[in-house]
């Protein structure tokens, strides 16, 4: 994948990710307000309270996931700048194009990712 295409794809991904992050943060903000309005609602025993907690947990998890994705995309863009984009950070071989298409921010080839037990 040429650097210009890679940069465009990563920037597209980052724009999407930022939109998802804003949405998740807006949800957290809304829940915070609802919780404040509910006053001293007991999360353990109030059914509405537990629903609120489950939604909160989901939105908070979503925030974390998207923040990680944005960091990963940033690292990918830095690699485009450095001229090392598309090279596996682990074994140094080119990352297959299909993998980059599916996951533009991938830092390693699928083999190394599987060995590391991540990505
Ligand atoms: Zn590799």
TrEMBL record:
A Pfam family of this chain: zf-dskA_traR
GO terms of molecular function: zinc ion binding
Highest taxon listed in the record's lineage: Bacteria
Limits of the Zinc finger DksA/TraR C4-type domain: 83-114
SUPFAM superfamilies in the cross-refs: Glucocorticoid receptor-like (DNA-binding domain)
Segments for region (Disordered): 32-51
Record keyword GTP-binding present: no
Zinc finger annotations (dksA C4-type) as residue ranges: 88-112
Keywords: Metal-binding, Zinc, Zinc-finger
Statement: the UniProt record of this protein carries the keyword Transport: no
Entry-linked InterPro entries: Znf_DskA_TraR (IPR000962)
The protein's name: Spore_yteA multi-domain protein
Source taxonomy: Bacteria, Bacillati, Actinomycetota, Actinomycetes, Propionibacteriales
